[in-house]
Known about the structure:
13 strands; single chain
Amino acid sequence: MTEPSAAAAPGLPTPVARRVLVVDDxxxxxxxxxxxxxxxxxxxxxxxxxxxxxxxxxVLGPDLIVLDxxxxxxxxxxxxxxxRAEPATSGTPVVMxxxxxxxxxxxxxxxxxxxxxxxKPFSPRELVLRVQSVLRRSVGGPQTGATSDDGSRPLLAxxxxxxxxxxxxxxxxxxxxxxxxxxxxLAFLLAHPGxxxxxxxxxxxxxxxxxxxxxxxxxxxxxxxxxxxxxxxAPRLITTVWGVGYRFDPAGAPGRAAETVVPDAQQ
Length: 267
């Protein structure tokens, strides 16, 4: 591991660098990605296969994992599945590296809980920007316009409650385990009840993407439905507006504006 090149200004405390685990069996790709991330101020560890990646993730507790799908030992999809199944790593952001034509694997990776993806061949600078974007969301709130009017007050719709400041969500008394992308999407929809949005608009306004695979939105909507709907096959909260996209209908009163509330102290 190499220390980051960024240094604190004189008289100021040294900032705590975020740790990124890069998992790729191609040493050239791994080295280049590591150099760019280190130059951006991150601590970087590397793994060349699936078992090593899982071991390092458990021991080091990285803030984010850059994960190639084509790995020896255990492939990237299985690594992602196991990361999400372990409490210690279930919330660790994952950025996948995929081949340009592997749309099926890319969608499956998103369904398993990956937060973002970059297709090969890729620009290392683009990857660093994606890493920065995902990490910002892991410590801050969703995009502008994705929360209540002051950007921090919790939102309520029926028995569904979302606290943007704490980045926590409950259905009745049960806390939901949402990925970063799922949380941002649900926060945006809760803050705009009764309004239909196209997939392109959701990508731009929720995640700040002006380009990308529209199936990303479809996958995250499907995953959200599995976590917030009584019957994901017949959704009542996140409904499909044919020819447009998706709309959030508050439970029991479709189209009613979501209320801003503060959860009880016990929650």
